[in-house]
Design a protein that fits this description.
It is built from 11 helices and 13 strands. A 6-stranded mixed sheet has the order 5-6-7-3-8-9, sandwiched between helices. A 4-stranded antiparallel sheet has the order 11-12-10-13, covered by helices on one side. Helix 6 links the parallel strand 6 and strand 7. Helix 3 packs across helix 4 and helix 3 packs parallel to helix 5. The protein starts with 7 loop residues before the first strand and ends in a 7-residue tail after the last helix. The model has no long low-confidence stretch (mean pLDDT 87).
Length: 316
């Protein structure tokens, strides 16, 4: 694997805590954009993030983050922002101080640190609470101020462990919009989240993990197409749903055709989506049914993960 200076590269990386496996034989290369890191508790997500940010070192293998080794954190910390899932703050600190002082300790001059702090607080919508003590913040406010600290130094790689926890729907929407903006600016965002239906909409790719192993990696829809031994679910909203359900079984690969409760559609499970779409085109052309909408019903991160891992790999 040949690393590029704008990539995050893991080359045959393993991490063991004594005899306990953290991650094993992990290899991938991530380009700029938004990557979802998906897996249940204990799958190795946090270990992977800690390795990426240099907080722990691999037992074997090589890691390069935009050409920098996490083994030399002095330069790496200028390029990487990390918002962990742990919610702890120095006693008595205000939101402003929580962001400002790490910038000063990193050698940034007062005026620049003050400007970066104000800019970042505005980006996460915390202006009104900036000079209040963090101890009086709600969980969602604490989450936003921690995110602000992670992006204050304008990193090129942003690692976010459950960044949507505790946010109300409006704050989640604003945070996801910020992630899209940062990803569009050429940053790497690596996001671990249980709120998959929201992260799924903005992700460029996905890394699926189970028991310390990467079980699939790539663009979400490409990964789904690789799961060829599992039926694909397709929802068809149409007229004459009973007739469509009956016609569906005339083609190969149909596992199930279930009428929707309102009678206005059919959920088809098939191992041969191409044949089903050909059938659908034919019966529409013959005027047997009128179709309002056709869409895959399981082309998302959560469904892909359940296909690969099974029902025991619950993400919630």
């Amino acid at each position: 694997m040949t690393p590029a200076n704008n990539s995050v590269v893991f080359d045959n990386v393993s991490k063991f805590y004594g005899e306990i496996l953290g991650v094993n034989r992990v290899s991938f290369s991530l380009e700029p954009g938004i990557t979802s890191l998906v897996g249940p508790n204990g799958s190795g997500k946090t270990t992977l993030m800690n390795l990426m940010t240099g907080l722990i070192q691999p037992t074997t293998g090589t890691i390069l983050v935009r050409g920098l080794s996490p083994g030399d954190p002095r330069n790496l910390f200028r390029e990487v922002g990390y918002c962990t899932q742990f919610d702890s703050f120095p006693r008595g600190v205000t939101g402003y101080e929580f962001i400002y002082w790490p910038l000063r300790l990193a050698g940034i001059a007062h005026e620049d640190a003050d400007e970066l702090t104000a800019e970042t607080i505005e980006r996460v919508g915390m202006q009104d609470a900036a000079h209040r003590r963090v101890a009086g913040y709600s969980k969602g406010m604490r989450q936003r101020i921690r995110l602000a600290q992670a992006i204050a130094h304008r990193p090129s790689v942003l690692v976010l462990d459950e960044p949507l926890n505790g946010l109300d729907p409006m704050a989640r929407a604003e945070t996801l919009a910020l992630f899209r903006e940062l990803g569009g600016q050429g940053l790497h965002l690596v996001i671990s989240s249980h709120i998959l239906e929201e992260v799924d909409r903005i992700s460029d790719r996905v890394v699926l993990m189970s028991s310390g192993y990467v079980v699939a990696e790539g663009r979400i829809h490409e990964v789904r197409r690789e799961v060829r031994d599992q039926p694909i679910q397709i929802l068809v909203r149409c007229s004459n749903a009973n007739r469509l359900a009956a016609e569906a079984f005339s083609t190969d690969g149909i596992v199930e055709a279930k009428l929707q409760k309102d009678g206005g559609g059919v959920l088809v499970r098939t191992t041969d989506a191409e044949n089903f779409y050909l059938l659908l085109n034919r019966i529409v052309a013959e005027g047997i049914v009128e179709v309002d909408a056709v869409a895959p019903a399981d082309d998302d991160v959560d469904s892909i993960y359940q296909y690969l891992i099974g029902s025991d790999g619950n993400l919630t």
